Amino acid sequence: MRRLLLPEPTFQINHFCMKEFIAFTNTIGDRVTPSTDERPVFLTKKNLSQGVLNCVNEDEFCARLESRGFRIESPEHHTLRQQIAFFHNPAGVAGMLGSNMHTSIFSRKAYGLVLHVVPYNSNSFYLLDACNQADFRYVTSPSITETEAAPGFRHSFRMENPVQLADAFADAFFAQQTEILSKRRANRAPKQSTPMAFYAVRNETGEFLTARHADGKLVVSSEASPLLYPIIAALGQDGKVELFAEAPAPFPVTASTTSHWTTSISGRLTIEDIEGVSQPGIQHNGKWLTLPPHSDGTEASFRAEIQLGWECVTFVELSLERNQAAQRLYDQIHGHRQQAARVSGGFLMA
């Protein structure tokens, strides 16, 4: 064998999405025209015969939504082109949480409301939403409880009052629809974020702070690599620091000492006297960021109790083009960060 090609994935669930993947899905999606039906779409799972989970009385929920003006559709009964068209709908698209909502990746700036039967949500949905600037909001209800699993499903759930829950869901959806369509009609400029200065970050021996594509962890790197995203530090006038990946879309990152992934890590800038020289550092939750010298590929961490040499950082100015791209990405991170809402007793609570 003279040559072996090992292609890198352009999308990894819960971790990253490359610009090439979005370009591919948008090329396909842009060729699909939306339906002429002006009603909002609800993508149901009620007709599935098997799967991971279902809601045994979803049919009652859907019947109520239909009376409120929704078009009820089962994605598995439609072609891919028809499924993409659902997400192009100017009136919005709603649905039960599941892979039926992943088709939104083919549509630019889709929006809607999604109901899930458990009180948590996979980060994969937020990642897909960020890639195409979608505005999907996720709701659940403590009135949905687990029941005996239906044949063909691992878990089944039941809505205590599907009609009341459907009314609360419809009210929330139409309020969101009014908000979004009003903004689009007014063609308002995007909300400006707090002025920030953007820099690359390196340690005392010149290695840069980066994030691995594979798992989003912060690592030290001596040179550019297609397997790494540079980390950008956004510095505010109040001493606030935010670290985020210089990626095509908001990309979840983590340090080896943190327990979760997030599109940016917040901290504060510190200035300490190190051997008679004022040196900047980055502190998060009371611990300093440690960037070991001469340690290409080593994971960075927030573990230092005091700031010494390994905790000293240098902020490197970006080119004009990179600075403008960093500002757009920063605005996107803060403009489209999703917060799950909850539905309780038939009423939506933030």
Walkthrough of the structure:
With 350 residues, the chain is an alpha+beta fold. It is built from 6 helices and 22 strands. Strands 11, 12, 13, 14, 15, 16, 17, 18, 19 and 20 form a 10-stranded antiparallel β-sheet that branches. Helix 2 packs across helix 5. The termini are far apart. 37% of the residues are buried.
Number of helices: 6
The unreliable regions are 336-350
Radius of gyration: 23 Å
Largest sheet properties: 10 strands, antiparallel
Shape: elongated
Termini, distance in Å? Answer: 59 Å
The helix-strand sequence is EEHEEHEHEEHEEEHEEEEEEEEEEHEE
Give the percentage of residues in beta strands. 25-35%
**Helix amount, in percent?**
10-25%
Q: Kindly state the number of beta strands.
A: 22
Average pLDDT confidence is 86
- Structural class determined from secondary elements: alpha+beta
What is the element layout, followed by pairings?
Blueprint (H helix, E strand, L loop, with lengths): L10 E2 L3 E2 L1 H11 L11 E3 L7 E5 L2 H10 L3 E3 L6 H8 L5 E4 L14 E5 L7 H9 L3 E5 L4 E4 L5 E7 L2 H25 L10 E6 L5 E5 L5 E4 L6 E8 L4 E6 L19 E10 L2 E8 L2 E4 L10 E4 L9 E4 L2 H16 L6 E3 L2 E3 L1
Parallel strand pairs: 3-5, 3-6, 4-10, 6-7, 7-8
Antiparallel strand pairs: 1-2, 9-10, 11-14, 11-20, 12-13, 12-14, 14-15, 15-16, 16-17, 17-18, 18-19, 21-22
Helix pairs in contact: 2-5
In short:
This protein has 350 residues and is of the alpha+beta class. The chain has helices at 19-29, 58-67, 80-87, 123-131, 162-186, 320-335, and strands at residues 11-12, 16-17, 41-43, 51-55, 71-73, 93-96, 111-115, 135-139, 144-147, 153-159, 197-202, 208-212, 218-221, 228-235, 240-245, 265-274, 277-284, 287-290, 301-304, 314-317, 342-344, 347-349.
